[in-house]
Design goal:
globular; 10 helices; six-stranded parallel sheet; binds guanine; 11 strands; Rossmann fold; three-stranded parallel sheet; single chain; alpha/beta
Length: 292
Amino acid sequence: MKILDGKKLSQEIKAELKTEVLELKEKGIVPGLSVIIVGNDEASKIYVRNKKRACEEVGICSQVYELEESVSEEDLLTLIEKINKDEKVHGVLVQLPLPKHINETNLILAIDPKKDVDCFHPENLGKMFLNCPRFLPCTPAGIMEIFEKYKIEVSGKDIVIIGKSNIVGKPLAFMLMNQDATLTICHAKTKNLKEKCLKADIIITATGETGLITSDMVKKDVVIVDIGMSRDDAGKVLGDVDFSEVSKMASAITPVPGGVGPMTIAMLLRNSVQSAKIHNLRKYESNESTNS
Ligand code: GUN
């Protein structure tokens, strides 16, 4: 049984990105990422702190805008507009979830697609869908990177995804379909989850329901990717999978923590550096056309 070590892989990717950032800085480009967080969601605060720390590690300049729970949608849209126009910022993201009085879709639509390093904007999701991506959504991209690194073939495989969110389940399904996997997407209303899981070569679960996947639900040598993240009463971080029992059946499994989580952040950094590179190219091309 192989542990799919996302923490180690993310460190390798961050080391590569650090070199790329140095090269960009030599050309006068400092990759910049702006992060907007609204309210006091504890998990979001931890995610944002980790994103900021990771930016510092690779040399990306980050600004975090921490806004009161009561902020209006209009003020948020004005802030996004300001960041869109800021030449020094190459990536912008709004940490989700948002308070109920704010329409998430309106904010996503307001982000300049060229700076949408989360890949939440429909223009970027459409490009990904058509298999000509500008950016890739961070958590799905992190999972694909784990598959590539550990040589886990997805073409022709029966894959069960549990969770149909816009951030993970839906985009991941399209990315896997683009690589010729056969998908079953399950969610809270799915009947006979066990029966479907028992047929799967690969199970990817993103529900936040501790212990959802038990050893009697999986076939021998299954590959397990656990994106669940919850805490027990003692504050211990737990995934969706009963790790100690399911790992006895699996050929490979991601741990929680240290699996997909660090890869999500590594992919955000990669998108931010990619965005800065595209910006540099555009700058170069516009200089060329002015000079000719
Ligand atoms: N909330 C949970 N995951 C994410 C993510 O990847 N991006 C943003 N913006 N919010 C999230």
